[in-house]
Every structure is written in C-alpha cells, then in structure tokens.
Write a sequence for this structure.
C-alpha cells in the first residue's frame, strides 16, 4: 500500500504513503514487515496526518535511515526509535506518535470541522501549521506518557493488533 488511492471520494485530498480511508471516515495505516508476508497493523485515526506519522515511524523502525526519502513527514520522527525494535514495540511507538498528532490536530480544528464517524472529508492543515507547535514535538519526544487519555479512545479496528 504505497499511496492512499482507495476509499477517497474527493480528488483534492492529499495522499500520504501507507494511509487509506475507510468508508466511514477513519484513516488507517498498516505496513508490510520486510522479508515476510506479514502486515503490521498501525491503527485507526481521525486525521490522515496522524495515520501518516504512524506509517513513517514504523517504516523508519523497520527499514532504518535509508527510508528517509519515503517518509511523509521526515522531520517528525520520534527521537526514541531504535533499529532492533520488536513488532509490538514498533506498533506502540507508531501509535504514540500518531495519537499525539491526532490529538493536536483535532484540538486545532473549529468545533464544526472536527472529524466525525461518517463520510465527511477531514480538512487538511499545512505541514508547517502542524509541526511548528511545540506541543506536538514535546508529546512525541516524551513518549506516550502524556497521551494516555487519547489512548483510551482506541476504536474497534485497533483491536486487530491484539488478536
């Protein structure tokens, strides 16, 4: 899954590597584990940017610095990443980074533009608007300790990683 082409109803939507949109409006991400036929489920998110950050984090963990040219947001990689992480650790790191971005983006949107659980199109923000905010950087660098409240709102699709 290199680009999100399926499930997009609006040709104006920005497409991110490793991200696709469900019929009901959630943005999801998964990635193939190199050398296997396995896919690593990275989660469901309210915004495509959050799903893209999850994909970037996992891609970097799995393929290392050589993947930098294929990242959606190369400046957003958490600093705590290691090359020898287990698939479960990669999922956790990707989820923590994405939830921080999801929470920040959702907080920035006016109430009438917040993502909902239907086919409504999520408004997009410029990358500089997202990443200039110190909150996002501190959330991603500190790990998931301060985003545990958001982690409690995991959707049913996320349960696939536990089964």
């Amino acid at each position: 899954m290199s680009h999100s082409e399926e499930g997009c109803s609006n040709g104006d939507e920005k497409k991110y590597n490793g991200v696709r949109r469900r019929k009901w409006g959630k943005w999801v991400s998964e990635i193939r584990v190199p050398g296997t036929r396995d896919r690593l489920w990275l989660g469901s998110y309210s915004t495509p940017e959050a799903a893209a950050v999850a994909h970037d984090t996992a891609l970097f963990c799995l393929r290392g610095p050589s993947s930098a040219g294929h990242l959606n947001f190369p400046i957003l990689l958490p600093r705590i990443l290691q090359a020898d992480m287990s698939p479960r650790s990669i999922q956790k790191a990707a989820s923590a980074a994405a939830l921080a971005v999801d929470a920040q983006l959702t907080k920035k949107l006016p109430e009438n533009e917040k993502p909902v659980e239907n086919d409504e199109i999520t408004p997009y923000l410029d990358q500089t608007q997202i990443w200039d905010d110190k909150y996002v950087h501190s959330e991603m660098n500190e790990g998931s300790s301060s985003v545990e409240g958001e982690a409690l709102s995991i959707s049913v699709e996320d349960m696939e990683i536990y089964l």
